[in-house]
Design goal:
Blueprint: E1 31-35, E2 39-43, E3 56-60, E4 62-64, E5 68-73, E6 76-87, E7 90-96, E8 106-110, E9 113-120, E10 126-131, H1 135-142, H2 161-164, E11 172-175, H3 187-195, E12 199-205, E13 228-232, H4 234-245, E14 250-253, H5 255-264, E15 274-278, E16 293-297, H6 304-313, H7 315-327, E17 338-342
Parallel strand pairs: 1-17, 3-12, 3-14, 4-11, 14-16
Antiparallel strand pairs: 1-2, 5-6, 6-7, 7-10, 8-9, 9-10, 12-13, 13-15, 16-17
Helix pairs in contact: 6-7
Length: 346
């Protein structure tokens, strides 16, 4: 009988001092906790020597857009975070303050960059129509990187965040949050993996608004995930299936890569090409068919991501690992350290 989990099952105490405000430099000097039969303290640069020839990394090549805008509604300041492009210059957004906005109001983000409030949605989002002939250029000029709220950057992100909050292999615009496990990779580390005969393929999952939304229901199974757009090419799917057939392991770099792979795999473990939206929500009891190991960062208590890693490696095991990480001064969240999870055997 499958256990019915409650939100408090995924809670743990995390001192605020553990929350990383800046990334380690170089990126691959961050700590790496391997969570398998035992806990091993490593650094990310050790990764090539913890994997095997014939293994395959699956990385997310989404690129974070400068999706946060600061502007004015009359004389009142307003902050907007883009969440989904609907058509042309029309976007779904989260706005602060949002409740007071009225349909037909105009928001001003720059001398030549404005938006009209078109619609207010039941989930709290707002649809804006931006007035500009070149939206990408206007966003480049006026937008800021949409750092998570636990990274303190008042009044706005720094210039270095434009590079720090982006993977070295980011290629396809569309994310409003970074696939943070990938932030640890450097060109040197990628070359080291290649030299060891460890392959790499790209998938795309544009990380969306759901990454910022807390679980507000006592029974996590009732939580509704926001859909995100994902793509797995035919060539990539074939490479993954060939690796598995040859005895290699599939290592998902980040929960985003894992969620996309598990959205595209069938009951026989075959990964299929994918081009569409996924709202997959992974809780303990989930049967993983596509992924053998997971590299990821340390996640928030009571979050959907901590639920996912608990499903992958076991809830008790993850709580033990996180307690160890806190004791050993690991750095948590987006700019923090990483862990390498082996799949639970039971």
């Amino acid at each position: 009988m499958k256990k019915s989990f409650k939100l408090n099952d995924f809670d743990f105490d995390l001192p605020s001092a553990c929350i990383a405000q800046t990334p380690k430099q170089p990126r691959d000097s961050a700590k790496l906790l391997e969570i398998g039969a035992k806990l091993e303290d490593l650094i990310v640069a050790d990764l090539p020597f913890r994997l095997e020839t014939g293994d395959l990394l699956v990385v997310n090549d989404t690129k974070v857009i400068p999706a946060r805008l600061h502007g004015k509604r009359g004389k009142t300041r307003v902050q907007v975070t883009l969440t989904q492009n609907l058509e042309a210059n029309r976007w779904k957004v989260f706005a602060k303050p949002g409740r007071r906005l009225r349909i037909g109001e105009k928001l001003k983000f720059g001398a030549d960059f404005e938006a009209d409030v078109i619609e207010k949605l039941s989930d709290g989002q707002i649809i804006l129509e931006f007035q500009t002939d070149d939206f990408a250029e206007a966003l480049r000029i006026h937008g800021a990187m949409p750092l998570p709220p636990y990274i303190d950057r008042l009044p706005s992100p720094t210039e270095s965040d434009f590079q720090d909050y982006q993977t070295v292999y980011a290629a396809k615009d569309g994310a409003i949050a970074a696939p943070t496990a990938g932030l640890h990779f450097t060109d040197h580390l990628l070359q080291g993996l290649q030299d060891r005969g460890i392959g790499k393929v790209m998938v795309t999952l544009h990380v969306g608004a759901g990454t910022f939304l807390p679980v507000r229901v006592d029974k996590p199974a009732n939580h509704k995930m926001h859909a995100e757009l994902g793509i797995i090419s035919e060539k990539t799917a074939a490479h993954i299936n060939e690796t598995r057939a040859n005895g290699g392991r599939i290592i998902a770099v980040g929960t985003t890569s894992l969620r996309l792979l598990e959205s595209a795999v069938d009951a026989q473990g075959i990964v299929h090409p994918f081009d569409g939206e996924t709202d997959i929500f992974i809780l303990p009891g989930f049967e993983f068919r596509a992924v053998d190991l997971l590299m990821t960062n340390f996640h928030l208590p009571r979050s959907t991501l901590f639920m996912l890693v608990s499903a992958f490696a076991g809830l008790a095991r993850m709580k033990e690992a996180y307690a160890h990480a806190i004791k050993k001064d690991y750095r948590f969240y987006s700019y923090g350290d990483a862990c390498l999870l082996h799949k639970a055997t039971t």
